[in-house]
Amino acid sequence: TANLPFSPCVEITWRLGSQYWGKGYATEGAKACLYYGFNMLGFSEVVSFTVPQNTRSMNVMEKIGLNRDKKGDFLHPMLPIEHPLSKHVLYRLKKEDYLKQGTNE
């Protein structure tokens, strides 16, 4: 595992075959994970990150209520700095913000 600048953390992520993109599966699954994590496991915060080129994942992060933390963007420690996928954007969601959204049912 990587030693990320914001560790320790709980990350929400998804990986789907391209034939399943655009069908809402990532959003639906991620919402269920947020519900379970915040309401059943008592997480205080969840993060998610990706490369800036992955706009589909960034859209899912925003749909499920995560907020971009531009100050938290980072170079992935498991990749060389010059690697084209080294730069990552960070999104966060605190439990109190999740509960305010009213989508936690």
Explain what this protein looks like in three dimensions.
It is a single chain. By secondary structure, the protein is an alpha+beta fold. 30% of the residues lie in helices and 17% in strands. The protein contains 3 helices and 4 strands. Strands 1, 2, 3 and 4 form a 4-stranded antiparallel beta sheet that branches. The N and C termini lie far apart (32 Å). The model has no long low-confidence stretch (mean pLDDT 94).
Write the layout of secondary structure elements.
Elements: H1 25-40, E1 45-50, H2 55-63, E2 67-68, E3 74-75, E4 87-94, H3 95-101
Antiparallel strand pairs: 1-4, 2-4, 3-4
* Helical fraction: 25-40%
Tell me, what's the shape? globular
Radius of gyration: 14 Å
The SSE string, one letter per element, is HEHEEEH
Mean pLDDT: 94
Number of alpha- plus pi-helical segments: 3
Largest sheet: 4 strands, antiparallel
End-to-end C-alpha gap: 32 Å
Total number of strands: 4
Overall structural class, as computed from helix and strand content, comes to alpha+beta
Q: Which segments are poorly predicted (pLDDT under 50) over 5 or more consecutive residues?
A: none
As a percent range, the share of strand residues is: 15-25%
